[in-house]
Amino acid sequence: MKKVTISDIAKLAGVSKATVSMVFNNKDENISKETRERILKIAKELNYIPNSVARSLATNRSFSIGIILPDITNPFFSEIARAIEDEANSLGYNVVLCNTDNKIEKEEEYIKLLISKLIDGIIFIAGGDSKKSIFLLKEKGIPFVLVDRYIEDKDIFGVFCKNYEGIVDGVEYLLNKGKRNIVFVKGPQKLEISKQRFLGYKDTMQKYGLYSEELVFQGDFTLEGGKKVTEDIIKNVKKFDSIFYSNDVMAFGGIKVLLKHGYKIPGDVNIIGFDDVQISKFIEPELTTIAQPIYEMGKSACNLLIRLINKEENVEKILYFRPKLIIRGTA
Amino acid sequence: MKKVTISDIAKLAGVSKATVSMVFNNKDENISKETRERILKIAKELNYIPNSVARSLATNRSFSIGIILPDITNPFFSEIARAIEDEANSLGYNVVLCNTDNKIEKEEEYIKLLISKLIDGIIFIAGGDSKKSIFLLKEKGIPFVLVDRYIEDKDIFGVFCKNYEGIVDGVEYLLNKGKRNIVFVKGPQKLEISKQRFLGYKDTMQKYGLYSEELVFQGDFTLEGGKKVTEDIIKNVKKFDSIFYSNDVMAFGGIKVLLKHGYKIPGDVNIIGFDDVQISKFIEPELTTIAQPIYEMGKSACNLLIRLINKEENVEKILYFRPKLIIRGTA
DNA sequence: CTGAAAGCGCTTACAG
DNA sequence: CTGAAAGCGCTTACAG
């Protein structure tokens, strides 16, 4: 099966390759209706599929973007990825998927790979401060936008969530319900979002004179981690009426442990998560959580990236989304 | 930031492009140690990243594969995708992600796109019989392998699960526990795997003279579908002691509805799912299910594909995995 | 309204 | 041990 090329079509149509190329690229103002139609007809008959690799080499554009994230298996990331792919596809772009498990070296490796493939831009959910990766991207002049995970750096484009405010909303909701002994489970220390979320809790609790370090626990954003930390909480905290997990996945683990120990939810203890991942509605009772507009965020990130790629003017560097409290069954 | 190319390096090293190229491709048996090292050193200093698009054009190989699946947001698919990406990456390949929502037209569109990008092969989780897509792939001679969703067609490579046997195991387990009124919830009708799973149930029930059409319900593999069908079951089936959902996600929806109606699980009703998606362990009680070796399947599929791409001999056309019953809390 | 030619950055026989 | 040259399939000024 010999591949059909632009030259084959040109020959059959009795025109030059340039003419054929122009027809396919809609730069055909200057081409007569007849030749255009002849070309299109032949292309159709031969089942012609253009070779976009050749095109990329000539134009220096690939119409592919990369998406670098920790783990597609984590529902938060798969939902973001879905949004990005939808938006990218609708704008004529392909998405190449890269899982890093938060490993800095894997990020760098992927970035080099993507650059070598002439990727037009990258959406990056960083596993840490990822300094070298950011440096690489800047050095090579590859447009990129961060999502979800904030990195301190000027000249950065990104779409983020107002983590601090989201947590404040949740804590105040619990406070209004008369809860006083609110345990907080932090996220991985190296992430900026973990710090922001914790600060939202700390400030609010302090404001009401309720803050105590004994109520704060270190988590890691995983299900297992959520289970383990909850065992610790049960063992070590004399009195608690709520647990605020700084992401949903840890909350799922925690709820299992609490139920096993005979706690009633929300009777004995109120639970709040963060993210509003789709499975929040899979469990019973359904999870009360601080919802990030995940799909919107992914979509905007992709949109922003493509505007950067197209060198549009006046693109906002950073977009903030306001999360909101969704009250369901656990609080 | 001018991009550095092989010519720049050649010039600086005082050799030809061919020599430089050979060094990078490890075809350098014939190149003196000194020149090799000189070239490598210069490349490093200039932070050279090869242009693999140019390479692809010259070699007709892209070291990218496509993965076409219904929805990355569905945990079953995200787990498969993860396995594929891991394996692909370890073998030097990139993965481009395509979500089809089971739409035949989107599948075709993506396939054309992927072909035009000179993708080396495709992993395809089809949304139906996808005749035209399969035809396209064959016509253009693109290696592809199917996973999970079987399609009747000779000349097809794929990795599948022994759906029939898995269901038989589950039904017999329930039977052994003394259950007799086992409701079965089918998957989407157009899928071959739905038929296989249903047949496993039907044959086993008939063998023991327990089959009745009143116990069979139509589902759609979604959470909402699982909820809806379960409402129906509660309304219409006088007596049932178990429900066998033909995938986990529907089981999650069903369990919520049953709990809300006051049923005890597994006290009043036993539940079995199919897949053993990671979230099976997120809920309480944990889901008893027929486990597919999802990660293994994805990995093998990718491996098989790459062997096809490399035109290896004696590759097995079809791999079957045996699912197995995992007994947890719901049955 | 259309064509000839150069170029994108590589690889690959071939020659010496 | 290394180089010159053609070619992969497109696009893009430029010329007419």
Automatic annotation (TrEMBL), chains A, B:
CDD domains: HTH_LacI (cd01392), PBP1_LacI_sugar_binding-like (cd06267)
PROSITE patterns reported in the protein's UniProt record: HTH_LACI_2 (PS50932)
Keywords on record: DNA-binding, Transcription, Transcription regulation
One Gene Ontology molecular-function label: DNA-binding transcription factor activity
Record-annotated HTH lacI-type domain positions: 4-59
Stretches that traverse the bilayer: none
Protein name: Transcriptional regulator, LacI family
Organism field: Caloramator fervidus
